Amino acid sequence: MAQQIFTTLAENGRLARFQIQQLTHIPTRSLRHALAVLVQLHLVLHYTGEEDITFYSVDWRNSYYLTRSNRVISLVDNRYGEGAGKIMANLLQLGHARVGDLAQAFDLTTKPNSGDDPCREHVNAENGARVNGTDTNHMRKTPNTKISTIGQFHGTLRKMLKAGFLAKVNKRIYTPAADLDAEIEEAVISDRFPDRKITGPKKQAEFKSAVNILKRKWRDNDEFTDRDLESKGTIRRPGEPPGKRAKVNGGLTNGAGHDGHIEENGPKLPNDMVLKVNYAQCVLAFRTDRLEQLAESYLGPVTGAVYGALLQALEGKVRARDGDIQDDEGSDDEEDDLPVASTLEVADLLDPNIDLTLGIQGMSETQPLTNGDTKGKKKAKVTEDESIKIEDDEDEHHTNGYTSYEGRNKRLNLVEEHLKILEEHSKGFCKRVGGAGRGEWRVHFSALTDTLVQTTIDETILARFGKIHALLVRMLREKGRLAEKEIGALTLMRAKDVRSVLTELQYAGIIEAQEVPKDTSRQPTRTLYLYFHDQKRVQSLLLQQSYQGMSRTLQRLKQERENYKNAIEKAEMMDVMNEELNQNEREAVMQWREVEEKLVIQVQRMDDQVALLRDFSGKDNSLVS
Amino acid sequence: MANSDEIANEADALYDQVAKSSLDEATGVRSKVFFQDELLKLADVDSAKTLMPLIQYLTNNGLFRTLRQAGKLGWSARPREAARQIVTLDREDKQIYEIIEEAHTNGIWSRELRRKTNMATNAVTKALNQMEKRNLIKGIKSVKNPAQRTYMLYHLVPSEDVTGNSFFDSGDLDESFRDELMNLIVFWVRTQSWSENKKKGKKGPVSPVLTADDASSRKRKRTEDIEDAGRHVYRRSAKPDPETDFPQLVYRAGTHNYPTAEDIHKFLTESNAIKPTKAASLTVAEIQGCIDVLCWGEKLERVPNKDGIAWGYRTVRGVSFRPPGTAMDEYEDHPGTGLTQAPCGRCPVFDLCHEDGPVNPQECVYFDQWLRA
To answer: Which residues of A are less than 8 Å from B293 in CB distance?
Structure first.
């Protein structure tokens, strides 16, 4: 039923409830219920206008993001541990949830509330605070990665909020973008332009900037800040020494903080805070991974890892949101707005166990590893992190003394060497902009996103055609429009070989030809063809093809499920009926699982490409609704 | 007025002088143009009056060619054999000959010739055939327009515009030479731009790089005191294997001089790998062309050099040269993208496919193949 409503909304656009009812013939009660579910899952937006009629429309972006759920979970798994992944999975399933309800879902409360929909019930905010240390036994198997105490739970949440993977929910996210804009504009007009005149270039500019300022203000109000902790979290627990708070900030940048214990008794989040997944920040993380892969392929795994750390450090400094305001500033300004990260920060994010001397010539000789002495650079690194784990106290005491300084210094030098190599590379992976913190680095993301798109296009061509095709496209990308003969001369190829390759590429839509008639007769023989490669067009072509590929793969999945229907149904019944599967059925179920896995994984991979082609630049607005 | 024999003798002497001076030109091009004052010097006569009959005689005998250059009249010598033939030519043939001569080492397209002479096609063709038979002119193949019949004087060497550069062999692209040359460049640049890690496994058999999950199995001894098994704090990590992942070590930034186009040119011309005649004709610009192609082919990449003047080049990581004598287009595995890995990404009937159509995802044979693979 929800599916039916969604389809109706998708096909018809914005509808009021009675209109949906007319189109779907669903009884009012069920319709209301279904709409509530859709809204809860953020699949549908609603807006109540002045006439008190509520309009519903599809939230395309969130609907699309459903396909990305698995990637998001595994990303958080990797970065913050299994427990965090579980929180994420819960949130993704529920759409959004209250902190207290989440805690309850983790069985961390002693006073479980009863109720069928955990998100709608009111949870006493006191609950979470009182249940410190009431671990449930079944979660203890690997206590370091799973969440076993309420303190860890809150620490994890807080970290993900700080990193931007989670966001606070307010009712504005349900408002369609256009209505939100209209609301803001209206507010600005009534506030600043009492005569309601916003025409003329000067007024226009003034109006626009006022709108942007208000937008930003509204948005910043919705941001998670430390205030949220202080006002609601710490005050609720009067026994807490206020000094603990400082550590929340210190985690990332300074290496000295012993943050190991912070999760246990750090400030708690208010239980009535409502959270949802911020997909936009996840997209940034995906971009980091992709860029790291790119750097790795050119400069080796260690340098790649260093680059990944740099990107992650930068990632923490940008807050990505869907439907963000795109400032129309010149590219010069854009560069200045980009965040910087210092060598120190990069070093802090790097796995201390990576042997940074690998991959660079002469490094292992000139700066020998501290293989022998146990108090090397490694120890210096262990201390600073915002780990959830309560870890190795004794170790951290070794960090004092001369050797640790020496080791740390060596390590920083090595990190800097890797960063310099990245800077030197012709792809321009990063740029040194200052000297603070052992050098500050900046990454020009829009140019690199472009590089990523180019790499994707090249790889597609390589896979579909071959090396020569890719070579020609790269050349056309650099040279612009060229005639066949010039292409032949530049690539040192025969004109007729060039022609066949060009024709293939043209047929596939990767390059295009411009006709330049030599005379008025416009005969093909008297016409010069200038070939060129339009990256934007190819990018959107590949994006469309990826969409189609995904939808076809999903259609196929449905069909395959149909094929294995009997076995699947029986397997599902097994628990209830205590039935046994026979050999054939068991094999069928196995096969089905394989098929399902293969198809689902492929959809995810195509989604990776969609993310790259569409979302990495942050400029796409095809899904704004 | 002196008698004709005398004129003939003096003219012959002048011709010899002129021909000799023409040949003396370093370029080897036998077409130097002499102006009146130069001829006066060469002929060792004092006035233009005595010179005129000599020139007249030589021109009549086809030994001198009159042309106008920079507003002045000038003359250049023709080979004797050619001259002997020219005098026997009729007026039309002579006209054609002169036009071809005008085009010099660039040659002239037969249709262009027709346009200039305003003669009938078959007349031109006949004249051309005749002169070709008598070794006055020759047909050449132009690289730019291989289909056009181009003519030039028999004794001239076609210019590089016509024959193409070093990569052309008698007007035809020498593909194997091109490929070998590029392969050689890749080979040499790789040795110059990366430090090859020959001491494999010098770090011992254990990987020095650990990550959280494989810490227990691959941990170095000194890490054992840290109970970081199962650490889940996310740190940027990598699992490189020093045995296989580091055959090439990159030089520290700004410390290495990567080979420039000139360096590569120097190496190629001084090595014995290519024929000396080819080596002599190779230019730096041609090498730069090769480098560009290699860059487009993702074999080389540009890096700034230590001195910061010329661009240096480095092979892209993992690119290696092909041992001489192996097959050209070895199969290379491309991982492809999420799209091209899926059956749809390489589907030949992608644009025809839709639900309920003759080609549809439900019954797609490519999916069948892919799923059962």
So the answer is: 471, 475, 490-492
